[in-house]
Amino acid sequence: MTPNDAINYEQVFSKIPTVLSTIKNLGNVASYIPELSNVDDTKFGIHLITTQNKSFSYGDAQERFSIQSIAKVLSFTLALKLEGKELWKRVGVEPSGNAFNSLSQLELENGIPRNPFINAGALLICDVLVSHLKNPKEEFILLVRKLVGKDDINYCERIALSEKEHGFRNAAMLNFMKSYGNINNDVDAVLDFYFHLCSIEMNCEELAQSMMYLCSNGINPLNNEEVVSPSRAKRINAVMQLCGFYDEAGEFSFKVGLPGKSGVGGGIVALHPLIYCVAVWSPKLNEKGNSYRGMKILEYFTTQTESSIF
Ligand code: DON
Asked: Which residues are marked as active site?
């Protein structure tokens, strides 16, 4: 019996409404980017896709939202593919234990970000992509559309602009890394790309589909094309496990036990290599900036299905 056959997804999903009714909708919607606060904070969606291409869904799983930092998994994937192991001269793979937008570690570590998911690391990844790609925004969104299998996945100009108008910390980080010689391109060009990739909108189903290559040894199951090598897919999952939730990565490993990545739009994607990918969306965030109900429901899910990777 394969592990997928061993999991009764239907039964576990059927109990989600009851479980959800016992979880308070605590926390706050992200407001440091004003446009992000224009969201109905009662929304909740979850969608799971198995490697045998079965889908399970509940709630607002078809409604698009701002995926924010979850896009950093895809930009990291592309940068690793284009730059190869040279990338590791400029960014690390260690958990930061700090908030996603923390500046202090960067000075202590001479402008080399701890990992590709904290903002400093994600900005550095954007610099790598701006160096490699002729039209970074166009080429990146084409990759995302291929992974999702839909032509209408887009940046949200409204959110990108709102973030640009308030992105002083990100600008500070980039300038700081540039002062150490770790950024090669024009700061405004890199920032513009970064704000756009954070503004991509998807629903839970699309988000789960976009990361299926990480469940499938680096192969996009929609077209059987290799996105990254099997070894790199494993490494991306390893970085998600240790760094995907910033200073809450330990808690997520402890309670959910899957590699995953969160975004301040309230989305979380998590996956069990070779078995399933699941995306959840609930906009209110806990004090660490991760979806409050999203984490709780994933904890319920891996507990009920006994499907943490540990
Ligand atoms: O850089 C920022 O502030 C955002 N655009 C992305 C933040 C984010 O989603 C962090 N993760 N949870």
From this structure: 69, 72, 194, 246, 264
